Amino acid sequence: MLSRAILRQLSHHKYLRKDWICDTSSSMNMRVQPTFRPTSLYSTSKASKLRNKATTMQTLKQSSVKPTRTKNTKTPLWMRNMHAELMESVALPRSLDDTRTDNHDDLSDTVLSRRDSVDQDQLVFALCRNFNSMSVEEILTEADLLYMNGISSSVYAQSMALYFYEMMDVLQLSPGQIVRAVFHVQQLWPVAVPLMVELEARMEGSLPQFTMDQVAWVCQLLFYGQHRFKSMTLVDAIGKKLLNEFDTITPENLPMMMKAFRYSNYIKVSFYKQLGDLLCSNKYLNNFSNAGQIMHFAFVFASVHITHPKLFKLVLTRVQELEQSPRMKDLSKIIWACGTLVTTETEHLERIQAIVDAVRTTISPQQVLRYPDNLMDFLVGLAYLDIYPTDLIEQYLGHDTIQMLLNLDSGRSKFVQLEFLAESLTIECPKFKRKLLSEAHHRELVSHLGHFRADVDMKLRKPMLPAIEALRDAIGEENVHCCFVLPHFKTTDILLEFDQTKKCFVPPQDKRSTNELNSANVKRIIVMLLSKAQTSYDDRPLGMLHCKLRQLRTLGYSVVQISAEEALTYTLMEKKDLQDRLLSHVSRAVDHRLTRHREED
Questions:
Q1: CA spacing 20 to 30 A to 341: which of 157, 208, 220, 312?
Q2: What pTM did the predictor assign?
Q3: How far apart are CA 85 and CA 282, in angstroms?
Q4: Contact criterion met (CB below 8 Å) for 165 and 195
């Protein structure tokens, strides 16, 4: 039951007036129903003026949730610190005792001293039903006070989100209020989604009034709530603002923005190039004291496939300079990023090798068994660069670790990476005699990877079908195969075999060994139609493609690479022109001029 003494205390709260609850005495004994319907909390008189929102509102109201209360100490430390900074610009209500100050601690003491006797659900209910009598600042301040006093009410946050969404056309929101609104509703699903779109629009219209730290907080909160920016115009404006006001952002907030840019798939080459230059200037990375912060810069550049060798050199250097030993999670992402962007410059490789040596002394079996996916990312990144620390593989990728990798949940699954590493060791490390996967593990892995099919990939990549049809018509259908030539690379290629004695193509034999090929004087040719996803934005092969080319050549294949730009034109070309183009490429690989199998009369 809601204590009347506490009500008297709260009635002096300048934002919770006594008249809000004095006329609801009958509700003192009322219990909140299990399914809370926000439709009863505020007037919907303006709903008729917002007809375009009717369907959304109905859906959201039906998704309301039960009241819940949790201690805010369960929230991440960065959120508590962020909220404390947000509250520096908020005028909290004065407490009952005039001798007490109006700071947050005194107000918390007033409420918390008798919190056990307060029916908090009814307190929240009383607040929610009076939204129409409150200003935006009052509504947000009550949310702040609930949070600061350890009362995390999904009912209040959801009701606030619905109210703001319905009344958005008439509300005035300052940048600070937008940030606080995002803070309190970002984890509500699906209630927060339409409100976030509205808040993005408000933010876009008032972005010059935001500080860079406020923008960074919004980015971090959206990422934490798993919301992507819906407006790429806003993201682009944020990017421009960051470049122009780079000196004003608190360095610790910058990695927050990298998370949101990556999650929202923001790809603008000029932005990342300029950002990389700014990070390289004035030893900016020295502002960061742990690898977790530095990792985000390497990770975002690799995720959007944009190279910046100077930045990666500084990232690797700074990680080595840190006094505190980096977490394996952070090192694995940094090495994966280096491998993905193929940072093979000598200075890069020297620093990467130093990191590998450091891992040898700091890694433990307990770390590996708890987070085997981190070790897998680390080893795959190194494999892209043709670095195989076989001692680490021998020591830490045993039967138990393999089984744990196979049992990871879907969000952390490493099936493709595990197959890649096992097959790559066989090709590039012949002296590594141990078979990484047992027969049982191999069967289980194959069952998980069954959805990768060459025929499906071939159809999804539009240039493949016209190229295959053109070659089959030119040199014979039986002489052209399309398949995963190396099973651990899940992109289809065209496989040809050319008999150099008879000067003609022969049907490819998938099981034929390299020795048999040499003795038969048969040349194996891979026609590889590249896609944009396989290269960086300056047309350099990414780690997977770089490694694939290296392994194919190790096995004796001749590789004909066709750029993504050229491949895209194949869907528009006449068949005869396409045949001539493809045969011209293959002729250089076999050192013999080729003509169409079916010449015109």
A1: 220
A2: 0.83
A3: 27
A4: yes
